[in-house]
Structures
1.
Amino acid sequence: MQFNTIDDMDLEGKRVLLRVDINVPLDHGRVTDATRIERIVPSVHDILAKGGRPVLIAHMGRPKGRTVLDMSLRQVLATLREKLGRSVAFIETLDGAEAPTEEQLSADVILLENIRFHPGEEKNDSEFAQRLAGLGDVFCNDAFSAAHRAHASTEGVAHLMPAFAGRLMQAELEALEAALGHPQRPVVAVVGGAKVSSKLDLLGNLVAKVDHLVIGGGMANTFLAAQGLAVGKSLCEHELAETARDIIGKAGAAGCEIVLPEDVVVAREFKAGAQSEIVAAADCPSDAMILDAGPKAVARIGAVLEGAKTLIWNGPLGAFEIPPFDRATNAAAAYAAELTLAGHLTSVAGGGDTVAALNGAGAADEFTYISTAGGAFLEWMEGKDLPGVAALSR
Ligand code: AMP
């Protein structure tokens, strides 16, 4: 997809509506993790450097079209000022009844109150989008993580004025393009996590696009069971056996190799430090649960990674929150990080628990790109058009 970036735009003297994701965690009104705020700094600074005046539009939580005080963006103002190192004025209402204050007129940056306080936002109401468009001259979207929603501030407004991608959006789209758009082959996808049912569309899309699909986590159990192996008390969606066989069939027709664990770590209890043993995937005892992939499986994944040029990863290979069932995830992630560092692999990961799992493995920093967008990243892996991204199309 072709889209404009900050570099393509003349912003001198322009008010730039900048959609950002600063939906940060709060504790009693204090920001406890400012990562999302830190990540918008490059766009704000680059817009200011080009003579533009950023008007930030953002949401917090799910107020469902009503004013909910503990979801007010006023709570992030101090952190925003600190991270941007600029003056930031806050605008509480959009009705324009009151004249702008001195502070609002002179500030470098303007932050609008939680856009989801307005019922028109999530409805993508065209009148509301027009009102938003009236607040600026051009529109910059830097909120990839909200791009799977067709809301007024992510989609509607983009059709009403010149629209372009912010730095974060640009980095995300370039990484995704490198991983699944026009990737260097061979491409390997690692998909783990709890259930097949939540990742059906994703698996269906991937088998048509990648050369190797490594399936891990609880969802691998469903595939093992579908091939007639006993999985004891493991998490398993037996009712999806037919679906799993379908996916294997589609992969075969598309020339995609499915990699399932040949050995597994089993335990009788699901708790930290539980006694565990390694058995062949075919030998899960009837009273045990499969909680991780075994060392042979990890070696096989390593060999696949070694032969690959591109990796896309979503979901842990085991119950990674509970040691020792984090071993396969940690080992595979560490190896992917090593190959990336050596310049052999482009590695992109994201969605759900993946960021936590890769952080736990100490591998996240070496990956080429880690997306912190949950739902948007998954919908993109499913091959869906993201309305907020499509609206930026040149
Ligand atoms: P998801 O949100 O679908 O990516 O799933 C992540 C969750 O899957 C994590 O909480 C893991 O603990 C869990 N998980 C991974 N492998 C297993 C397994 N073999 N048995 C039970 N839960 C697992």
Note: The pocket of adenosine monophosphate is lined by residues 193-195, 198, 217-218, 235, 290-291, 315-316, 318-321, 352-353 (CB under 6 Å).
2.
Amino acid sequence: MNDDLRSKVIPGVVALEEGPGGLDVLVVTGAVADARIFLHGAQLSHWQPRGAEPVIFMSGKSVFEVGKAIRGGVPVCFPWFGPREGLPAHGFVRNVVWELEGVEQGSDGSVRVALATQSSGKTREKWPHDFVARLIYTVGAKLVMEFEVENTTGAAFTFSEALHTYFAVGDARRATVEGLDAAEYRDFPDRTKLLRQQGPVVFTEETDCVYVNTRAACVLTDPVMRRRIVVEKEGSDTTIVWNPWIAKSAAMADFGDDEWPAMVCIETGNAFENSVTLAAGARHKMIARISIGKSG
Ligand code: BG6
């Protein structure tokens, strides 16, 4: 650990450790919740409010290597969502090491961790704009994730984004997601058509739906873990719901063939028609607030 990083941690509350693959991980042991956040991708891989089961799913097959995406946790998708010919899927900020801007304790026992990354010659080869991206985690009884993009170019640019959150569930086949009834969505692989959701989302096959024009909170009900996970959001008009199911799981090298029943992604984003156009010098912020409760 270099001295600059050492000066930013809080002994007994936030430690910087060497994680898998030699990647730096911030280990948060707060008064009300624990978390782990990789500097690589600013990717949270664990959040556990005191007395509760872990809320976030991580694949046991993830690779941990600079330049590659970590499988699970909360990958940050920016400046595009989904595949792009000849370029990394979901943008490039999840594949680079971010800077730790600072950590701070709140009076309610929460811990704030601020991370940032910015454009460089390398990013300009992939996306010809200048930006600063900041992610602030507040690790408490709720997990708050604030993702802000600042346009530091002299002209407007358009981007897509997502906080691609993997939630741990007892069995995806028995889980439901409420909050998207009647919302329009773009299915996979044909994202050109708009379909309409009816009732709660249930998982009976590969599910890869981009819900557009929705600011609604989502409730993930997990009867096996007897838990409800609530995802509230601000500054986000798109919600993506994903479970890879059997064939896609088998095709992913960094995901176990039998891991799909243990996760459901609910992603807070802005993509497709909700992509954000940001004027020169302007900032855009998107916030996801995650909380848990008991279900019957
Ligand atoms: C989801 C997309 O957000 O991410 C899926 O909707 C994609 O289409 C999934 O398969 C995982 O993407 P990746 O790049 O992390 O394998």
Note: The chain has one domain: 3-294.
